[in-house]
TrEMBL record:
Residues 14-116 form the FAD-binding FR-type domain. Gene3D superfamilies: Nucleotide-binding domain of ferredoxin-NADP reductase (FNR) module, Translation factors. The keyword Nucleotide-binding applies. Its cofactor is FAD. Coiled coil: none annotated. PROSITE patterns: FAD_FR. Pfam families: NAD_binding_1. It is an enzyme of class 1 (oxidoreductase). This is ferredoxin--NADP(+) reductase. Its EC number is 1.18.1.2. It comes from Brevundimonas intermedia. Keywords: FAD, Flavoprotein, NADP, Nucleotide-binding, Oxidoreductase. It catalyses: 2 reduced [2Fe-2S]-[ferredoxin] + NADP(+) + H(+) = 2 oxidized [2Fe-2S]-[ferredoxin] + NADPH. CDD domains: FNR1.
Length: 271
């Protein structure tokens, strides 16, 4: 018998990190956030997403879904913003995690909701619905965002006022951030809209753009200007499709990592 025959088979490296849950926050009966310990060798660009999941039950395959990283690229912990689905293959279990539990995370972040996929501009519009706010939590805390754009607009559309998770963060807490607080105070505007309850900005963001209310509310000239405006889209498929078509009517072109342009969307969440 040869030495080769006696050698054990090489152990195949896992494609996932097993990470400790640091904290969990339940915003509503349908929304929660959590954070995990960041691996020392994990690098990503603000706005990217990664696969998050749990081991399969009864020895089955792990259940994973794509999640935008809600932390900026420099953060020491990785935060995520999730919906709760009672019978969802992943979130029915993920919503029950507590600090100290273990979740799985892929090792290769990717995505198009990054500054690299946009050409230069003066104003950046981050348009999201529901948990599509997550990448804006990352991009809005990145110093490069404020060095590249004179003004940043975080736009969040939800059904109910209670669904405006992180509202206090964008209106107040971000101003105390030791890294970008001063820049956010001077350059960041938060614009929430609510579709199913009375609110100061009622309706879908696409309807408010079409009516011109969005621009009037912010004291801006009506319409988007391809010479100065850039945008990112994340959230429901209907919003992304409609908003993308709106941006195109104003002359903005879709970009990518390979060919940066005027606006980007995350196709991993579109179908």
């Amino acid at each position: 018998m040869t030495d080769a025959a006696l050698s054990p088979a090489p152990v195949k490296a896992s494609p996932f990190n097993e990470l400790e849950v640091l904290w969990v926050r339940h915003w509503t009966d349908s929304l929660f956030s959590f954070a995990v310990k960041r691996p020392e060798d994990f690098r990503f660009r603000s706005g990217e997403f990664v696969m998050i999941g749990l081991p399969g039950e009864d020895g089955g395959k792990p259940v994973l879904r794509a999640y935008s990283i809600a932390s900026p690229c420099w953060a020491e912990e990785l935060e995520f913003f999730s919906i709760k689905v009672a019978d969802g293959p992943l979130t029915s279990r993920l919503q029950k995690i507590v600090a100290g539990d273990t979740v799985l995370m892929g090792k290769k972040p990717t995505g198009t909701l990054v500054l690299d996929a946009l050409t230069g501009g003066e104003r950046l519009f981050l348009i999201g619905t529901g948990t599509g706010l997550a990448p804006w939590l990352s991009v809005a805390r990145d110093p490069e965002t404020y060095s590249r754009f004179g003004h940043v607009y975080v736009i969040h559309t939800v059904r109910s006022v209670a669904d405006l998770a992180y509202r206090d963060f964008f209106t107040r807490e971000i101003h105390d951030d030791p890294l970008i607080g001063d820049e956010a105070k001077a350059q960041l505007t938060y614009y929430p809209t609510v579709t199913r309850e009375a609110f100061e900005n009622p309706g879908r963001i696409t309807d408010r753009i079409k009516s011109g209310d969005f621009f009037r509310d912010l004291g801006l000239p009506e319409g988007f200007d391809p010479a100065r405006d850039r945008a990112m889209l994340c959230g429901s498929m209907a919003m992304i499709k409609e908003a993308g078509e709106l941006l195109e009517t104003y002359g903005l072109k879709e970009g990518s990592n390979a060919e940066p342009a005027d606006y980007v969307l995350e196709r991993a969440f579109v179908g």
